[in-house]
Amino acid sequence: MIAKLKSAYGSGIEPLTYLGQNYMVVDRSLIPEILQVLRNEEEFDYCVDLTAAHYPKREKQFDVIWVLYSFARNERIRVKTLITESETLPTSVSIWPTTNWLEREVFDMFGIKFDGHPDMKRILLPDGWKGHPLRKDYGILQQDNEWVQINLGIESGQ
Amino acid sequence: MTDQNTSLSPLDLETPEKPFLDANELVINMGPQHPATHGVLRVILRLDGEKVMGLECVIGYLHRGVEKIGENRTYTMFNPYVDRMDYVAAVSNGLGYCETVEKLLGVEAPPRAQYIRVILTELNRMASHQLWLGTHALDIGAITPLFYTFRDREEILKIFEKYCGARLTTHAFRIGGLQYEAYEGFEKDVRNFVSFVAPKIDEYEELLTTNRIWLERTKGVGIISGKDCIALGVTGPVLRASGVKWDLRKAQPYANYKNFDFDIPIGQCGDTYDRYLVRMAEFRQSLRIIQQAVDGIPEGPIMAKVPKVIKPPVGEVYHSIEAPKGELGYFIVSDGSTQPYRLRVRPPSFVNLQALDQMCRGQLVADVIAVIGTLDIVLGEVDR
Q1: A132, A110 Cβ separation under 8 angstroms
Q2: Residues B81, B31: Cα–Cα separation, whole Å
Q3: Of B322, B307, B317, B347, which is closest to residue B252 (Cα–Cα)?
Q4: Which residues are paired to B52 by β-bridges?
Q5: What is the value of ipTM here, to two decimals?
Q6: Shortest Cα distance from A8 to chain B (angstroms)?
Q7: Buried/exposed B138-171: b ≥16 CB within 10 Å, e otherwise
Q8: Rg (Cα) of chain A, in Å, rounded?
Q9: Distance (Å) from the C-alpha of residue B59 to the closest C-alpha of chain A?
Q10: CATH: 1.10.645.10, 3.40.50.2000, 2.60.120.330, 1.20.1420.30. Which one for B66-383?
């Protein structure tokens, strides 16, 4: 299967494996297409997880990772793409409705926007919060003191 | 009793054609403090009389930033935090985390440790389902099952307490195996428990399964089809009750579940009653596994050779287990240091809660309570 995809997309896909788990690093430009192909033709009908990681020292700072599973094949695969801070990704809600809340959480924690998402707003943090906590430049004890003072009426949350 | 008057596919539900507020609709807030929402969950209901037109969940009241904390603690230091996410079934969380880190390190827990792990995990599954049954029945109005299940759950918690000192947030497992040897009389206690609880499960069934009020309140409520479950990513007993025969313990076995013989109960139509039947059947299957495990515990070490300072090589791994609520997954990115670079927890309750909107359309307000109960969510896991 990987060979078929590789032959179709050439240099845009790089299949790798670590500890017996297969994953592929895909170019940003191929993203909606590859996910569609994986869902429709290769039967990866269950999107297990969508998450991201922040590497501030790299040029392409964010890693966005989809973990997919296929019931028919009993196989799990990861799709990874690298994007810069200002780039956005197309939404996968039309491919897997699971990603609705998962994309909202990635936006909430990292600030990565997904174009075409029906409800792109924060999910775990309050709506007016500033900052994206899971980025590496957000301190472990940092809180949005302005929000705390306006909404909770106390000096600071610490 | 309830009519599904919606012809919208799950995708259309997210983009309503009309504005949110309509003259015929009443927007009611089922606020974060509510006796039946199993934690701090806020549900905004759009009602037409008593019928639910749509709902929106607002979560995040219990967000503690566990993933951020994970980046600032070493692998062993993070172990106790993991129990606090799904605080009802803490042992499974620990199993998932320890197995993922063991995978990164390339070690495997010795056989004796794996048998004891399976026994504790299945006991934990029973405790979680017992709590689910008690609180779900209480939401619907039946008070007696609560007392029965909590009384029997005490026996499991006593075993946990004798084993590791804690009833709820057990921190039972360590990376590479177990820290505590099974105490003197562990096997006797577990065998006594198995023979003690089997007739109790029959008692629970006698109270509810053919009870006319229970049937009226749960049959046909919160129906979701197998295809929608897969599309929405719902796993666990909810998926099995919709007819999809899938359990991670059989599909991608972990922790020597291959050695045990058990069935996967499934339901037919995916309503609340089917989910109740599936979880009752899971009780019995857990008892089977515990019986087989206790008969076969080998002698041997309980901890594998793990370095004192855990520094996995650079790489990333995803591993998931079948927690009582669904597929609990851990995705750990390691950069070669003693602290994880990124630690992501894939919570089953978070993804299952998304399906609430679809399951409640066209139902009555009282059914919303039943569906929240049947999804078996724990807010600690939803929010982390």
Answers
A1: yes
A2: 27
A3: B322
A4: B47
A5: 0.89
A6: 27
A7: bbbebeebbebbeebbebbbebbeebbeebebbb
A8: 18
A9: 6
A10: 1.10.645.10
Name the minimum distance, in Å, from the CA of A5 to any CA of chain B.
22
| A68 contacts A47 by C-beta, under 8 angstroms | yes
- Is A118 close to B346, i.e. CB distance below 8 A? no
Instruction: Please identify every stretch of chain A with a pLDDT value under 70, giving residue numbers as ranges.
Output: 1-12, 157
Mean pLDDT by 10 residues, chain B (384 residues): 43 50 76 78 86 87 88 89 88 91 88 90 91 89 89 90 87 86 87 90 88 88 86 89 88 86 87 90 90 88 86 89 90 89 90 88 87 88 86
- Largest interatomic CA distance in chain B: 71
Residue indicated by tokens 């503690």: B64
Dist. CA B257–CA B118, nearest whole Å: 8
Determine the Cα–Cα distance for residues B214 and B209; give it in Å rounded to an integer: 7
Q: Are B257 and A73 in contact (CB under 8 A)?
A: no
A24: its two tokens = 């592929």
* Partner A, chain B 282-341, Cβ-Cβ below 8 Å: 315-318, 320, 327, 329, 331, 333, 341
Assess A158–B contact: CB distance below 8 Å, yes or no: no
- pLDDT, residue B229, reads 87
Residue positions counted in chain A: 158
What is the pTM (predicted TM-score) of this model?
0.87
Q: What is the pLDDT of residue A127?
A: 83
Which residues are CB-neighbours of B165 under 8 A, at least 6 positions away?
A: none
Number of helical (H) and strand (E) elements in chain A, helices listed first:
4, 7
Closest CA to A52 of A89, A14, A15, A12: A89
Dig out the tokens for A9 from the structure: 């997309």
Handedness of CA B150, B152, B154, B157 (dihedral sign): negative
Token look-up 């929010």 returns B383
CB contact under 8 A, B331 and A65: yes
**B268: distance to nearest CA of chain A, Å?**
19
Q: Does A93 touch chain B (CB under 8 A)?
A: yes
Nearest to B63 among A65, A96, A124 (CB): A124
Sequence ranges of the domains in chain B: 66-383
Contacts of A93 in chain B (CB under 8 A): 11, 14
